[in-house]
Amino acid sequence: MYICKVCKDTQLSFTLKCRTCASFLSLEKIIPEPQILTLDELEITEIRKLKTPIDENLNEGLPLGSMTILAGVPGAGKSTLALEIINQILLTEQIPVLYISSEEPPEMIKIRALRCAPELIHNDNFKILCETIIERIRDAIKSVLTSEDMIIVLDSINAVVAGKSKSAPGSPSNIIKALNMLHNFRKTQEFKPTFLIISHANKQKAIAGPLTLQHMVDIVLFLDIEKDNSRTLTTLKNRFGPAGIKTTLNLPPY
Asked: What distance in Å separates the CA atoms of residue 80 and residue 77, rounded to the nearest whole number?
């Protein structure tokens, strides 16, 4: 929060001019005093969940305002599953969705959607952005963020880079910078979007990147290819329900 030294009004984000009285450089950041509370003083608000094809893994749906990692081995169908999740949500909800592709051109996304989620083709709530620089991604999200129900899909975090980084995409430093930027972005916005972030795994089935990637998010899902070529989805972490849930998925062929 920021407070204006002139009119004493508050606002959620910093601007050069106060949005109330238009005073220039009059905003000061409010640093709250730490609060020590008892459990009895806390009020629990119910979290709205969106129905998806993987509700068994998510414990009754995708929580609004959450940050989820969907990881998996190459070729498992992470992008396909992400489109199927969004497609089912948009069949019943009028929610804006921004699908950010850092690996594929928009034409490839449309081809995949025609195969596994054709309803998305004519849905105006589904938008696509192809970008690899995390600062531009952040600014693009901010420009379209008009609802707390908005969903952001990032495909994938391993292909984005910080603007001034000299490291390659997928390096631990770039992954941490990207996730930190998105995490801090959520804290400073009036509306808190729901993030579904796709991440790669190596041949040893370990999620690429540092463990911080898994610690900072609310839900971690892992998509794997079994010996019979079937797909299994395992919940590795879930702050809103049980972990360790493993289900078999029927994903369409590539």
From this structure: 5
% of the chain residues with pLDDT over 90: 57
Element (H, E) at 248: strand 246-249
Pairing type for strands 219-225 and 194-200 reads: unpaired
**Interatomic CA distance for residues 99 and 196, integer angstroms:** 9
Q: Is the entire prediction scored with pTM above 0.70?
A: yes
3-state secondary structure of 140: helix
Handedness of CA 66, 240, 87, 208 (dihedral sign): positive
Give Cβ neighbours of residue 1 (< 8 Å, ≥ 6 apart).
10, 11, 12, 29, 30, 32
Token pair recorded at residue 193: 């979007």
User: 212 phi and psi, to 5 degrees?
Assistant: -55, -30
Q: What are phi and psi of 98, to 5 degrees?
A: -115, 115
CA dist., res. 120 & res. 117, Å (int): 6
For residue 17, give both structure tokens.
């001019």
- Between β-strands 67-72 and 194-200, what pairing exists: parallel, antiparallel or unpaired? parallel
- Phi and psi at residue 135, to the nearest 5°: -65, -40
pLDDT of 105 higher than 90: yes
User: Model confidence over 36-85: pLDDT tens digits?
Assistant: 889 998 888 888 999 999 999 999 999 999 999 999 988 999 999 999 99
| CA gap 101, 103 in Å, rounded | 6
Contact predicate 12/39, CB 8 Å: no
